[in-house]
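Late entry, evening session. Most of the bench is empty. Finally got around to the prediction I had been postponing all week. Sequence below, unchanged from the version circulated by S.P.
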Amino acid sequence: MTVALCLIGAVMVFSASAVMARETYGNGYTFLLRQLAFLTVGFGGMFALMNLDYRKLRQPAVVFTSLAVVLLMLIAVFFLDKNHATHRWIRVGPLGIQPSELAKLAVVIYLAWFLEMRNKSKFEIRKTRATQGIRDASLKARPTLAGGVNDLLGTLLPAMAPVLLFVGLIVMQPDLGTSVDIFLIALAMLFIAGLSPKFFLGAIAAAIPAIYLLIVRVPYRYQRVMSFLNPEADPQGSGFQMLQSLIAVGSGGFVGVGLMGSRQKLFYLPEAHTDFIYAVLCEELGFIGGLAVLVLFGIYAWRGARAALAAPDDFGRYLGLGVTVMVVGQALMNLSVVLGLMPTKGIPLPFVSYGGSSLVVMLLATGVLLNISQHAE
């Protein structure tokens, strides 16, 4: 399904960008060729990680090196020139690296390692000779660790410290969408590890003032929320992108207007080949095409969860479920934005949207998941 999504993405990137690329660069194949180059790099990395034992990633040298490299990159972007009024990219010649995308995978690896070290085992050592007070070592039960995931000082704070540091730097870029995505990935992994609901309620309570400061007190974000609630109030301004997306989706009907036949991509729908590529897909391929993409992501979620739950150790389980949440969660966020179920955010559709950093990271993560599936019990 990953290869199918990538192939669909390459076709739709060309369809959504050909006219704009010809007008801007004089070559309608510009974005397609770049996407194919990203796919080549991404597939190479995916196959390499698919054949690398995922348990090598649990080594502290790997975990902390990845955190340190991402942290340095997130800091470095503030000393580079802005792109679209944001500090999100590190430019290397014609290529651009978005450190916030790398931060997602680094957080998943770190939390998988940390939670395996700190969480209580599901199976306690059994007492077999109660009268003698002897434990039967032949059961090979996993040892229990005091505190577990609900230990505030021993587990939660150390687990969330790098996450909150990354989230804070990404918010400053500014990129609220990706920072929220990373925070939700971390919460999902903690929930999988057995986090008590009371901590979720505490996180929600603590988030209220942060939401107020980051959204209500920031005019353009507040305007996005108001436009989400009533896009018709400013159809030529803040509500333009959402309305054009809904028009594109609705225009496709059941079978679509045909490949390359989208009208909304002709300078009506902003970011047609990136964040809103699903709208173009629905317009050209209709309900059938849109449903096919949803089914593919559904299969990815099922296969990912199945492989993770069958992993032979806690690290594999946390890592596999973290990767699955990262990919499928981002897909749901993008689809929700395109369909008008969430305020507009710059979140690409995994494997389908144009963009090198997101595509390569998602393929690398999928390579790790495929390796976990090879060790499944």
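Two things to note before I forget:
The two ends are 22 Å apart (CA to CA).
The chain has twelve helices and four strands.
Will write this up properly tomorrow.
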